[in-house]
Amino acid sequence: MEGLPGDRPPRGGEGDPGQGRGARGRAGRRAELNGHTGAPGEIRGRKIVLWRHGQTAWNLERRFQGSTDIELTEEGLGQARRAARLLAALRPDAIIASDLKRTAATAAELASLTGLDVAHDEALRETYAGAWQGLTHEEIVERFGEQYAAWKRGEPVRRGGGELETEVADRAAPVVERNVDKLPDGGTLVVVSHGGTIRTTIGRLIGLAPHTWEALGGLSNCSWSVLGETMRGWRLLEHNAGSLPEPVLGDDD
């Protein structure tokens, strides 16, 4: 993208003005930018970036992938490279990812720019949807019409005999929370996962009732959502974004 370097951004030390004090310096700078002073009793000013993988052939065919291990297309790899250059500018402190090929390849692009290792965890995989997996949208509606309609109404449904959405959140959200707890004050965690898993994780972390999670909407390939830490818990700052977050001015005005 224009205006962003392709090289790995500096992570403290020489050549990084104002951040020569290492992790504490980075944390202080982030806290200042986020409006947090670091005084005792204040929140830690951390952020979570939940990033969906790039395009796959099954995405193009509108096939339900679920936990099927599908690789990125060439376009998907290009999407990951372009998005990684933007996300690298956020100076993430850690990257975690689903262990499936499409997420691993997406995460690898950000890792190559930041020098960070990627921690892969199968708990961040997409929803297992049993008999739905591999079917197109039209085939699912034709063969599982009642099940599909119930799911769209927000009812707890084991799509294709697979997982409930709450079960996906039960496995994914704790992984995100454990890794956030390891961040420095003002730190940023990038979670590379799948559309359904990201939606359920966001719903769980911001405290929405499960039947409302569908209202969050989907993510485009290689788009992301951002959660910010507040006095009331996690807050959704950006959703289905493809650009860097802008400051919110006049929040409730």
TrEMBL record:
InterPro entries: His_Pase_superF_clade-1, His_PPase_superfam, PG/BPGM_mutase_AS, PGM_Phosphatase. Gene3D superfamilies: Phosphoglycerate mutase-like. Pfam families: His_Phos_1 (PF00300). It comes from the Bacteria. CDD domains: HP_PGM_like. Residues 1-40 are annotated as: Disordered. This is Histidine phosphatase family protein. It comes from Streptomyces albiaxialis.
